[in-house]
Design brief:
The structure holds two protein chains of two kinds. By secondary structure, chain A is mostly helical. The mean pLDDT of chain A is 92. Chain B has one domain: Four Helix Bundle (Hemerythrin (Met), subunit A) (Up-down Bundle). Chain B is an all-alpha fold. The model of chain B has no long low-confidence stretch (mean pLDDT 90). Classes of the chains: A mainly alpha, B mainly alpha. At the A-B interface, helix 1 of A face helix 2, helix 3 and helix 7 of B.
Amino acid sequence: MKNFEFLFTAWMVVWAIFFGYEITVARRLTQVREEIERLRQQLNGR
Amino acid sequence: MKGRLAYTGITAALVFFAGYAALFLAPDEATMHAVQRIFYFHVGSWNAMFCALFVVFCANVAYLLTRKQKYDALGVSGVEVAVMCCTIGLVTGPLWAKPVWGIYWTWDARLTSTFILWLLYIAYLLLRGLLEDPEKKASLSAIFGIFAFLDVPMVYLSNRLWRTQHPQPVILGGAGSGMAPMIAKVLVLCIVAMFFLMVLVFIDRYRLEQLRNECEELRFEIESRSAQVQSLPPSAAQRMSS
């Protein structure tokens, strides 16, 4: 297949950007959920 | 939760089938061969970006009219997702261009206006990071978002209005445009798959923004309670804190 390396690189880049971004969103979600839990405990005086 | 799982499953199936169709079912283009297959996800990512930016524009206008926080959350979520789609488009485009044009990049109307669009929305995100006051942040970014959206029709029309190195439009491009039926079917499938993928990330990002606001409300409540305790006489404050 001619120019397959460009197709392969583009394919990898699409998934790297997508999963990279999705992982950062998931991490931030976990951090905020933990923070909410901590604040709720603080608010309830525990 | 079940709805979310079902949606993720449908998106995964669509993306898998679209990927398979783009790589194996679509016919080999006569002059470009394998590298033409980049086009399926390149166009799909632009389409997803335009949809996200349209939502951002509507959310920005809605925020300025109503001052409801949910529109600000929708706006910033959409911008992040649109920047992700734009980045995919800006990286896959040059990877297609190098073997076809012999160069990765040229400053023609389409590429330049797209690059400016990417910079504008990066600036939108940076602007939000610089402002402390939530209301000021939301208002200024909504105004900036509406201003940045002016570049969207410019990007869309650039290769229709000016002669560009970028290929002329193959969809709604007038006489002489169009593509082989099988290529068109695979392209539509890829556009739908990328749209579903964009919506999936958009939902997660919007959820994050909502949780951040919930977090801010809790912090504010804790601060106001501790301020209340400090303003009381020592004996009452001791009773309240215990």
